[in-house]
Write a structure and sequence with these properties.
single chain, 365 residues, three-stranded antiparallel β-sheet
């Protein structure tokens, strides 16, 4: 078992410190992933992107013919890692690590696995799935968001495999963008949950994709929807967080979305009306995870990771004299430190997806 040992209280005394998974920065501001850590984290989605069971398909059957199909028949590109979205962001994570660490020990195994999944025939079946009756809203918007993040990661990568995978994936990406463009004018109300349907998280990743791909029509649709849904919000009920199965903070995700779409001059006044200093102090309290074998309770480890990257992003947008900035930066490190050991806990309920959240948090800079 690969175990992390971390004593946060010693951090300031030890300077830059190395564990098997990461470097602790000299100024105690965060972590840097090591090659050994990348190797181990990569092994988690690598062993599950072709692991068909257990599986949660969330499939709506239209007849007995499609009711009896196995996961790999329903979703030949993204059938592993328990569910579709975890498979998608597992692919994203492996590609992100291949780009960041070209010398990954399992690099060729990763490439072989992705080649087998991202084929023209498999992607066409994924597209057909969305065209079935009752399937247009499937994986909306969490899975959609991670699919766009995967495409974004492949874009501009000067790698022969990467170029081929980008070409294979593009028709599905176009399908997702079309579904989103069709949905946005109809979305009268935001989903303010801490799990998959969270509107702000989905729009944040979609915005990043639209900006990176220079799809201005999609970007402007996201900006309009974000303003319509969130611009008037005040006094976030942050004290109600977290719910018992959250892996996202609704208030932090909304703030991170608005930080993307508003100018710096407009964002800080908006945030002043949305999250107070006492709200930030409440969100800085680490979540308690009582049972990591429970598929819902273990979400709270993911909450620590998503809070970490959200707090860092918000802190970076605040002026130096803002009292919230220091709390956010300190809490971002504390949440990451608390969650990293759990990524390699050996429990499949968490490890089939938490590694992606860890990599997103560790490599966001």
């Amino acid at each position: 078992m690969f175990i992390l040992f971390f004593n946060f209280s010693l951090l300031a005394q030890t300077g830059e410190e190395q564990t098997g998974l990461y470097f602790i920065k000299k100024d105690s501001s965060g972590f840097k992933l090591t090659l050994a850590g990348a190797n181990h984290l990569a092994s988690l989605p690598l062993k599950c992107i072709t692991k068909e069971f257990p599986n949660k398909t969330s499939h709506t059957s239209n007849s007995k013919d499609d009711h009896i199909l196995l996961p790999a028949a329903l979703h030949p590109a993204f059938y592993g890692c328990f569910d579709w979205h975890s498979s998608v962001h597992g692919h994203w994570m492996l590609i992100r690590l291949l780009k960041q660490f070209p010398d990954l020990a399992d690099g060729e195994k990763i490439r072989t696995a992705i080649r087998q999944n991202l084929t023209e025939a498999n992607i066409q079946q994924e597209i057909r799935y969305f065209d079935q009756p009752n399937s247009a809203s499937w994986e909306r918007t969490y899975g959609w968001a991670w699919l766009l993040k995967l495409d974004e990661e492949l874009s501009g990568w000067e790698d022969d495999d990467g170029k081929e995978w980008k070409e294979m994936l593009s028709p599905l990406t176009e399908k997702i963008v079309h579904l989103w463009m069709t949905f946005l004018p109809k979305q009268t109300y935001a989903n303010r949950t801490g799990v998959h349907p969270n509107t702000a998280f989905g729009l944040s990743l979609a915005y990043d994709y639209a900006e990176h791909s220079k799809n201005d029509i999609f970007k402007q649709a996201i900006i309009k929807a974000s303003n319509d849904l969130f611009l008037k919000d005040k006094n976030a009920p942050a004290v109600w967080e977290p719910n018992g199965s959250d892996f996202l903070s609704p208030s932090l995700q909304e703030a991170c979305l608005m930080q993307r779409i508003l100018s710096p001059a407009a964002f800080v006044p908006w945030l002043n009306g949305f999250l107070s200093l006492s709200d930030i102090k409440h969100l800085a309290i680490l979540p308690v995870v009582s049972d990591r074998k429970d598929l819902q309770i273990v979400h709270l480890d993911g909450l620590s990771l998503s809070r970490s990257w959200s707090m860092k992003k918000l802190a970076d947008a605040l002026p130096a004299n803002d009292a919230r900035k220091k709390i956010l930066l300190r809490s971002a490190v504390q949440h990451l430190a608390a969650a990293l050991p759990q990524v390699v806990s050996g429990e499949y309920s968490g490890e089939h997806w938490l590694a992606s959240f860890a990599v997103y948090a560790l490599l966001q800079e």
